Amino acid sequence: MDEHSERRKEPRKKLMAFTPVHDQDKGTLLGYIRDLTLQGVLVIGEKTLDVDTQTTLVMELPGGLPGIVATRMTISARVARCVKDESPQTYRIGFEFTDVKPEQTEILQALLERYHFRY
After folding, report:
1. Any residues with CB less than 8 A from the CB of 97 and at least 6 apart, and which?
2. pLDDT by residue (tens digit) across 62-86?
3. Has residue 69 been placed in a domain?
4. Would residue 119 count as lying in a domain?
5. 3-state secondary structure the chain
6. Domain range spanning residue 30?
7. What is the number of domains present in the chain?
8. At 105, phi and psi to the nearest 5?
9. Which of 87, 83, 88, 79 is nearest to 57 (CA)?
10. Which is higher by pLDDT, 41 or 17?
């Protein structure tokens, strides 16, 4: 178990939905959601990012979220980690959400309930 998983407040959930994540300021695709919690998201992407960089993420939302009409969510985040993935051309980019608003928490909970893998 690495030092990051020991600090995690809740277990990560792997999403079944194919959910792209963009950098709002640069308008670039950062990658696709691999794991999600109410505190952060793990994205698999092709570019390395500097740890401690602040950014605004735009997550495209899959349809079928009960009670959620939004098609995307914009949320502030900090790059907490960026390491090589198993595939040599991809990176595991861990983002920690910052300044999470109640409506964002509602969307995150709906995503977790509807699309996480059932263990």
Report:
1. 38, 39, 40, 41, 75, 76, 77, 104
2. 877 888 888 899 999 999 999 999 8
3. yes
4. no
5. CCHHHHHCCCCCEEECCCCEEEECCCCEEEEEEEEECCCEEEEEECCCCCCCCEEEEEEECCCCCCCCCCCEEEEEEEEEEEEECCCCCCEEEEEEECCCCHHHHHHHHHHHHHHECCC
6. 3-55+62-94
7. 1
8. -60, -40
9. 79
10. 41
